[in-house]
Amino acid sequence: MLERSMNGPEGADRLPADIEATLNTITALQTDRGFRDARRQFFVEGVRDFVQVVDYGYAIECIIYSERLLTAPLARKLVRRCRRSGVVAYKVSPEQFRKLSQTKRASGVAAVVRQRWARLNDVLPEQGLCWVLLETVHSPGNLGTLIRSSDAVGGAGFIFVGNGVDPYSPAVVRSAMGAIYRQTFVRTNWPELRRWIDHQSRVVIGATPTGSTDLHELVYPKTPLLLLGEERKGLTTQQTDLCRHKVRIPMKQGVDSLNLGVAGSLLMYEVYRSNGPHRSVDEADPG
Fold first, then answer.
1. CA–CA separation, 73 vs 139, rounded Å?
2. Of 10, 205, 259, 287, which one has the fewest beta carbons inside 10 Å?
3. Is 208:249 a contact under the CB 8 Å cutoff?
4. What is the C-alpha separation between 3 and 86, in angstroms, rounded?
5. How far is CA 107 from CA 56, 97, 174, 241, in A?
6. Whether residue 91 is found in the same domain as residue 13
7. Is 139 exposed, middle or buried (0-12, 13-18, 19+ CB in 10 A)?
8. What CATH number has the domain bearing residue 89?
9. What span, in angstroms and rounded, lies between the C-alpha atoms of 46 and 35?
10. What pLDDT shows up at residue 287?
11. In terms of domains, do 71 and 200 share one?
């Protein structure tokens, strides 16, 4: 059983060197994107996220928990199960757990987890309702909203062009409310994406205020790629050139625009609606 604990009873101030090093690693994962990228790790906190990480088979590097704070029976059971399977589990005091917690109420369980990425050429292009293409997102809350919406409609996941988007930042993980574990993430570049789109005969639909068609009027193809631009500037010329269709979201006169999370969610739900009224993605016709 790979469990590390403090010297003495829970609540002691002095930490063994391996636990202290792990807490320093967690701090870096919470604050330093370069560190997250280099380690291919991210930090999850809370009963819901911990349970889903286990349920969806993510590779857990280590668990940090406090016996006194962790009261959820299922989470306690999963900690024991992970320990039996060989995962290192660090037992800390409530005070020490609260120092690493970024939530208002510390749940008593957290984990360092391996990021999960797919290669573009390995994904199934007709998987799920749609894919979302993103190059830049400034607000973690907007990305979290998009991830939740994609999960809700049965979207396959996200294709990130370049390194401008970090779906494993703590703010995105929190705002995604567990949906992150059911989405596929791909990172690619423009030349590779263009070749893949041509080879797979995929249809790209861009959302822009200058679009020629209202989003409710377009007949959506199976599993389209939905391209969303940067919050303030919208689609770039390079992004626009990739689109077969450009749709706009109708709004009353004088309104500037919707934020990216809302606009992207409306587009995803329109694809979902057009897939068949009152039908779930699982009930849609195959093929």
1. 35
2. 287
3. no
4. 9
5. 20, 9, 14, 47
6. yes
7. middle
8. 3.30.1330.30
9. 22
10. 38
11. no
For 153, the token pair is 């409609």
pTM for this entry: 0.88
Tokens of 97: 């757990």
Give Cα 136 distance to the centre of its chain: 15
Among 60, 80, 114, which residue terminates a domain? 114
Instruction: Say whether both 106 and 125 belong to one domain.
Output: no
Q: Give the 3-state secondary structure percentages of the chain, helix then strand then coil, rounded to 5.
A: 40, 20, 40
CB 94 within 8 A of CB 66: yes
Is the pLDDT score of 229 beyond 60? Answer: yes
Tell me the β-bridge partners of 214. Answer: 248
3-state secondary structure of 169: coil
- Please compute, for residue 122, the number of CA atoms within 13 A of its CA located in the half-sphere on the CB side: 8
What average pLDDT does the segment 23-40 reach?
96
Average pLDDT over residues 223-229: 96
Domain that holds residue 269: 120-283
Give the model confidence (pLDDT) of 107-165 as tens digits: 999 999 999 999 999 999 998 999 999 999 999 999 999 999 999 999 999 999 999 99
Over the stretch 43-99, which tens digit does the pLDDT of each residue have?
A: 999 999 999 999 999 999 999 999 999 999 999 999 999 999 999 999 999 999 999
Q: Is the dihedral of CA 261, 262, 268, 269 positive or negative?
A: positive
245 lies in the same domain as 128: yes
Helix (H, G, I), strand (E, B) or coil at 63: strand
Q: Are strands 41-45 and 109-114 parallel, antiparallel or unpaired?
A: antiparallel
Question: Regarding beta strands 60-65 and 109-114, do their DSSP bridges make them parallel or antiparallel, or are they unpaired?
Answer: antiparallel
Same domain, 131 and 241: yes
Could you give the CA distance from residue 36 to residue 179 in angstroms, rounded to a whole number?
20
Three-class DSSP category at 7: coil
